[in-house]
Amino acid sequence: MPKLQSFPVEQLHGFVVRVFERMGLPPGDAVQAADILVAADRRGIDSHGIMRLKPYCELLRSGRANPRPNVRVIRETASTAAVDGDGGLGLVVGPRANAIAMAKADDAGSGWVTVRNSQHFGIAGYYVMAAADRGLIGWAMTNAAPQVAPAGGAAPMLGTNPIAVGFPAGAEPSVVIDMATSAVAFGKVVIAKRDGRPIPEGWVMDAAGRPTTDPAAALTGGALLPLGSTAERGYHKGYCLGALVDLLCGVLGGAAWGPFVLPFLVPQRINLGREVGRGIGHFFGALRIDGFMDPAEFRARIDDWCRTFRATPPAADVDSVLVPGDPERRAEADRSANGVPLAPAVVADLRIVSEQTGVPFE
Q1: Mean pLDDT, the chain, as a whole number?
Q2: Domain assignment of residue 298, yes or no
Q3: Domain range holding 164?
Q4: C-beta pairs of 197-203 under 8 Å, 24+ apart in sequence
């Protein structure tokens, strides 16, 4: 394992803000984008954190991402909206669309928003935490470039297509469910390849459709496996969850879907010769709790639920049973105090970004 170097959260956040400003984002959008990107590192989700700054800059530099998008509502009802992201970074488009969903929930009891013509939007959990902080139940999904084989398939057709839901609590922290519908997030495979280590069996298959522990196999014609990994372990469930996200974000949202979504981190591997929508698609939802029960009673019931599940007798070799969001909160507490550990390859990429933009890194 390469030796990691830790950096204060504030330093990383300030660097990202200045880089995005140098790449043409307005100051407010640059801060918003940095908030989401650094939140991933702070919460221990390194696959979606500052390691992606260089690819974001490449998107902007190549013209594939619009630094100053005109994000607009193109269709709406009292509780729904369809948003066009004008090719902006998902880190900018996503928060605006999520805000529309929350505002509609405040007015109508629920809000549901689709997004087309966007880019990668960071960690899905960021959006549902914003809703939970506002006292709402939040939903967030996004489709992504094809990296995951469908159940029984040997070619990537779906993205990792994460689903996140957040529930506000009382004395307990909010319950934050944030998961990919693949067996693993693609970024974790990238990190393993970068670090030169094998990956667990059940994460990926090679170009011939055979299971492998070589992370490079997923980058050279192979594919990630859906959640469940094999038929015996129920990979149809992960496939169906990934399809659900793709149908809501891509098909309903008017964005590209399935194998037609353009890649973010890797060269395009599948070209089926046609376009079916515009950009990446997102889906946001927000529910007002008082439409179902008294909010104070709901928060107390969430607290009770959390404490009950944490009191479950742990299995062998497990210290304690966790509630969704607990690992990320532990990482956040540690990294806020001790800094974010970055691998040498990530630091090298940040220094390249520094040289390209003229923004000092260290």
Answers
A1: 94
A2: yes
A3: 71-328
A4: 197/1, 202/229, 202/230, 202/233, 203/229
